[in-house]
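Homework help thread (please don't just give me the answer)

Our assignment gives two proteins as sequence + structure token strings and asks us to describe the second one. The first is just a warm-up. Here they are:
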Amino acid sequence: MCKTILKQLTYRALMLVFAITALHPACADNAYRLPEKIQQGVILHCFDWKYSDITANLSNIAAAGFTAVQTSPAQTNYTGTTSWSTLYRPRDTQIGANTLGTETDLASLCTEAHKLGIKVIVDVVANHTDGTLDWVADFWKNTDLYHSYGAVSNWQDRYQVTHGEIGMKDLKTEDSRVQDKFKTYIQALKAIGVDGCRFDAAKHIGLPSEGDNFWPAVIDTTMFNYGEILDNTGGDDATLMPEYLKYMSVTDSPYGTNNVLGSAKNGQASTSGGGNYAFTYNTSHLVYWGESHDTYCNSGGMSDGVSQEVVDRAYAVAASHNSIPALYFSRPTSSSGAAAQAGVMGSTHYTSSSVAEVNKFHNAMNGKADYYTASGSVASISRKDGGAIVVNFAGSGSVSVANGGAYATPGTYTDRVSGNTFTITASTISGTTNSTGIAVLYNDVATTPSVTLSQDGGIFKAESLSLTATLSNATAGWYQVGTGTKTTFTSTATFTIGTDAAYGDTIVVNWGATASDGTEVTGSATYYKIDPNAKVYVYYNNPNSWSSVSCYLYTATVNNAWPGTIMTYDSSLSINGKTGWWYMEVPTAYVNGYAMFTDGQASGTQQYPGANQTGIAIEGSSLYVDGTTTGHTTAIPGDSATPTPTPTPSTGITIYVKASTAPYLYAWDDSEVALNAKWPGTQMSAQTTINGMAYYYQTFTASPLNIIFNNGQGQQTADIKGITGSTFYSYDGTTGYEVLTVDTTSTDSDTTTVTSQTINLGTSVATYCSAYDLDFTHVQGLSAYIASGYRLIDGVIDIVLTQVDYVPAGTGLMLMGTAGTAYTVPVQTMEAGYRNYLKGVTTDTTVEATDGIYTNLVLVANNSSYQFAAISASRTIVGSKAYLQLPTSVVSTSSAKYFNYVIDDPTTGISKIQQHSAIDREAYYSMTGVKTYRPTPGIYIHQGKKIVVR
């Protein structure tokens, strides 16, 4: 989607305008008509209020239209009078007591709030504890639970942002012990009635793509969650922000602080009508504000010294948008925000008409698309088939501003703030604002006649659907299915649709409602009948020959994150006379939504349809698009939803890789010419299955070939150079990769006896594991070894390898031979027992960094040789490979990152050692007694043993 911001633009992005139909407000069953969900309403930040003070003011808060209240951190802390910042230096992950009150007080607040339809959000500090460890609970005194990087000095260095200190002790949120504590804390909050969490310093807590699983481990998706992201993530926002949005809404600080508050301060309306993140990531999972506790309570902050009236104008803009909650900050009553004290109730200005009427407008217009326009000092936000908010940043005066998109319903309105008369036409909104500078214009939806359908459009996967129509604020109504007869009713009516429709058909239900004064309102809802057993696909013929194709799906309420999900290519599929299509299965949530096709790039995205155009309606059945022709089809890819064509290139080099997420592959020849695309290359998409294992693959004609695997986000392998034949790899999404040994010839079935196994040795040294008993006795040029032990001398660890011939199935091995050679190894049933530190796997197996008393290590390429290295996080060991287990007590005695292996030859008493780290060892003595620390190939005496350096 184009990220260009136009002067007049529907806030949720233009392409959504055409997809959104009028929605009925979903309000709680309470006298204050508050939305049921926090994401639909507005939030009062009861900053540093005691729980008891919030409870005492709940009726005023509800009357002012707030859906939720947000408390300051509830974690155990100092209980006396103290600065506001103390609560952001928690001492434990328990609920209170602290200056705000006790757990009982918080539970009571939740109980009383729920009676009025108000939700409760608690601020959670999970990034750090107190600045010293003198005050924290005993569990948190363990320094192993904290990062040791030091203070953040570069706020654009993502590693510093997630591992550095911001004045307090930075927690190791990637540690499962930390995660377990906070998961327990969140569940304790939920148990006493807390409805949501605001996560302080969220951008300082890493993401799964960065090796930190804190968010998926801790977040409770049944609660409302939002995280504090100030300015940016400190890294690549294009990749990191969408990942945060998977778990929570986020604060759009650049929009609220710089755009909206900045406009209010300088008296000029911004031409940009929507939040930075909303446009960039096409999301409503945001929280806006006119000011926050950071902008007010930090000396020199953006709203420090700014009048409340000016801030209210900023809030009016922030709170006028659809589907995005705004946070209203109750200012501390002290003369300076920086001097604010915890436990002291703040300003009650939230009850003023300029704030309360904005809130009520936000709630009443829920579900109606918004449109922002600006001219000089005046901005307007009009709502489709609804009203408008006008903000005059100059204060009082006559205004005339556009009715953006002709959204607001024409008519004469009484401003709910000033009582002045405003006129809305199809093109303009005009009237006079009072000193607040805020005008709120809409007709009360409670008096508007309407019909509510028990299912308001969408799909149904059944032969028929029963609907109930209910009248509201009307004396008579009617419904009509398609072009059928209108049926009248006076209260409710139940009817069935779809009985005579085919799967894939669209059914429109029209309705009308008439008020006592004769006013009639009409509307409609569209339904799609779907075969409950059928799958819906989208297909794209890729006429622009993008290297990869992604599909972006959206409805009025959900999307799958720009630039979409990578599609799969099926070269044999034929639709509408054309062969070769990219495809993906459409999740149920999107089968009546819209599709767009992109090249999958996070920036500079190419797309179809073009920027600011509406997507292509899926309409409940499989859709094909080739750039000129669009239609529906019954074709399915291959024989199932996941075809696995096996490539058989007659020439060239095919790179196969096993990875949990499609990696990017960058390739170049020896003339330094890129062979697929500029960095980071192309994201692999074609897949195949060999011996039950799935691989991504790509074929090249150049030889020798040089490649780098990367995740498109800065994590990459070292150069892999000089490839002369098709090769198999595994890639873990960071810097780690392995060359795989894959049997591509043998078969295994109930009716076939396997007599041999062909091992394609991709590199001269590799780990291996077979599902069969193998006999290496007469295999020329290939040697098999087990890890029979280890040596620890002066802090240096050597892995001792012993050659074996008879190998039982499932044995972990080290193979040594000639790279690029296929070896045939006989299958021979046998019994043999070894003490072996190599652990073989025959199917993909996930291992953790440690296993009981053992540390897990893998074989890695390092400076043109092979060594073992401990893994730092969970790692998938590919089937037919092996990993090494050593006692953690042994590994921890060495500071070395890589560990050598030696080969013991029992017939000569000589050990063979790889020459990777000789400089770190004691002296070597030649057979003539010459001493050296950098041995060349030959036979030496070292540490009392004869060895061969090769």
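The one we have to describe:
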Amino acid sequence: MEKTSRKRPTIRDVARVAKVSTATVSRALQSPELVTENTRKAVFDAVTQTGYSVNTAAQMLRRNRSGTVLVILPDISNPFFSEILSGIEKIATHEKLTILIGNTNNEPERFTNILENLRNGRADGALLLNGVAPPADMLPEHTPMVTISERIAGYTLPHVGTDNEAAAYDSTQHLISLGHSSIAHVTGPEGNQLTNDRRAGYERAMRDARLSGNMCEIQGGFEFQDGKEAATALMRQPTKPTAVFCANDESAMGVIRGLEGAGYNVPRDYSVIGFDNVSFSHIFSPELTTVHQARYAIGVKAMEVLLALMGGQVTKSTIFLPHKIIERSTTLPNP
């Protein structure tokens, strides 16, 4: 029985169909802006017709690139990051780049080990979601890096995320607009930049409403148990707040369960607002009022900024994407 085989299309096949030279095909694929629109169309039509596939690995080798980008997370189990990762993945896939996810688990040594991929050339750039700066002098100057969600204080790395202070201000203002004047804030963990920004927004909103004397800040964190413990502290306040702004959704859910466990009703006794609009905030009972961050769009934009840096472009240092208040069932007007 005679065997049949089909050869893989080559760049010469594309050149023949497009009726241009192989050099023109290479130029159109690698730097399309250098050829005319008609030539570019002829080449890409020929690519489709022949089924030619660019050897991405060989291209990267010629350009001294690995074709891999690092995405560094503090806790991969946190549902907050899922939509951001989806946005990153969309752009990376389109650009035929590989994503290498590094989970630091909030451990400095693991963070350093993950960064080795940048130093030894196994990755071309990094997206930092952990809010921690690389150790001094570990990486070459101008290593392409972008921070996402959490800024790194004192560093000028490009940043893509939400204006956390403005969003916290709007959250507190939302509670004020419902007639609440005694509003508590359950903070995030101390030393965290998100905690600092969201606290600042809360305090500014209370000052602007001339409610500085009613401010009540309770040390919390970003986890469910942190919220439950904050609920205990909340109930011990000499003056009972009627509303609570929490630093994130998970802690807000912990606050609600803690209050309910003590016999209080949310939102009748306490209005509660969270921050992030994570996927399960709308299936929690009661459905959580929260701040929506455009996390998918943040992931997309951050990856685009990193690509620009990797291409040698200078980019805007800080990009804030819009946020909005999602009003659900955990807030009511103050009777």
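TA reply:
I won't write it for you, but here's a hint about the kind of observation we're looking for: The radius of gyration is 25 Å.
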